[in-house]
Amino acid sequence: MRIKSHKELKVYQMSFDVAMKIFELSKSFPKEETYSLTDQIRRSSRSVSANIAEGFRKRRYPKSFIAKLVDAEGEAAETQNWLEYAVKCEYLQNESAEDLIITYENIIGKLVTMENQSDKWRV
């Protein structure tokens, strides 16, 4: 079966769902983090799925497709970094953050696979 929309991609679904979890968890971050950690972690987590969506639409252009997947991979790694800060600042429990970090490792793995097999995604 041919995938017709980015919403059908498992990696997109995973990245969207984990970004929503981060949004919910970050609601409890202190007010003084509103314009720093809270904004940063929400932005980077949302950017993963946004880059996947944009890349999927650019898949007929291999370099653009791969570049967007690489951007998504970078945003996933950035989100992992912010999660580590959230734990160190005691805004998140280590167990909660670790589950999210592992989810991002899985997302990164899927993105790397797509990058390495980019010819399979051509229109």
Give an overview of the whole structure.
The protein has 123 residues and is mainly α. The protein has a single domain, classed as Up-down Bundle (de novo design (two linked rop proteins)). Helix content is 74%, strand content 0%. It contains four helices and no strands. Helix 3 runs antiparallel to helix 4. It is elongated, with a radius of gyration of 15 Å. The mean pLDDT is 96.
Lay out the secondary structure.
Layout: H1 10-26, H2 34-57, H3 62-88, H4 94-116
Summarize the structure.
This protein is mainly alpha-helical. The chain has four helices and no strands. The protein starts with 9 loop residues before the first helix and ends in a 7-residue tail after the last helix.
| CATH H-level superfamily title | 23S rRNA-intervening sequence
The radius of gyration computed from the alpha-carbon positions, rounded to a whole number of angstroms, is: 15 Å
For the record, what CATH class applies?
Mainly Alpha
Largest sheet descriptor: none
Low-pLDDT runs of 5+ residues are: none
Query: From the helix content, strand content and strand pairing, which structural class follows?
Result: mainly alpha
Strand content: under 5%
Oligomer designation: single chain
- Pattern of helices and strands: HHHH
Rounded mean pLDDT score: 96
How many domains, in number, for the residues? 1
Q: State the distance separating the first and last CA atoms.
A: 14 Å
Q: Which CATH architecture is right?
A: Up-down Bundle
CATH topology: de novo design (two linked rop proteins)
The total beta strand count reads 0
Number of helical stretches of at least 4 residues:
4
Q: Judging from the principal axes of the Cα atoms, what is the shape?
A: elongated
- Helix residue percentage: over 70%
